[in-house]
Amino acid sequence: MRKTYLLPLFFAFCAAAFAGPFTVTVSVNTSSLSGTTGSVDWQLNPGAGSTQTANVTISNINGATWVAGGPGTAFDLGNVTGSHIAGPLTISTAGGAATNDDFENITFSNNLSFLLNFNGPAVVSPNGTATSPITYYFSLFTDTNGINPAFSSDGLIASININPDGSAVKSVFSTAATVTFTPEPATMGMVGTALGLLGLAGWRRRKA
Fold it and tell me: CB within 8 A of 196, min separation 6: which ones?
């Protein structure tokens, strides 16, 4: 079944201001799982107070082999289009679904990397009426059903919030991962440290 988690953010995060679409580079050292089959989960979900849509296109996916018609419970939920590992894959909040989710089975290699391209009205031309962010989530699991987490206590590797003003905040929850805004904007700065509970983020993932 699907379960909602309230995840305490104990990790440092960075805020960046953008004047339009932006790109994020993600890389995860998966050498400890090389040759094994697990699963990846990508989500882009609106907040309760979101008033505009956004989309993320996932491309340049390297370091994983797609397991077609995988042995687990691969699925798309909400507004998901594209060709997965062959790329690009696009997830959008357009359509009104509370959860927009692509969950797939993969065989790991030594390093999983991909690009995230964020676009849409909430990114390009925020109208100032939203009261909560749109959030992207990226998770990895060591099994094909999304039960056993990889590289963090619950499988969540990173999240990116698109704030009501169009700025973006990244949070990284695994030491195996590197998440970089491309190009790194001059306006970016550390706005928090791992000193304790910084906030709560909702996260839905597949659980048996």
Answer: 10
Find out whether 153 and 7 touch, Cβ atoms under 8 Å: no
Q: How many CB atoms lie within 10 A of CB 100?
A: 25
Specify burial of residue 94 (Cβ count, 10 A radius: 0-12, 13-18, 19+).
Answer: middle
159-202 tens-digit pLDDT: 999 999 999 999 999 999 999 997 654 444 444 333 223 333 44
Rounded Cα distance between 118 and 150, Å, is: 25
- At residue 62, the 3 state secondary structure works out as strand
Nearest one of 154, 108, 171, 140 to 41, comparing CA atoms: 140
Distance CA 50, CA 92 (A): 13
* Structural contact between residues 163 and 71, judged by C-beta atoms closer than 8 angstroms: no
Reported as type and span, the H/E element at residue 121 is helix 121-124
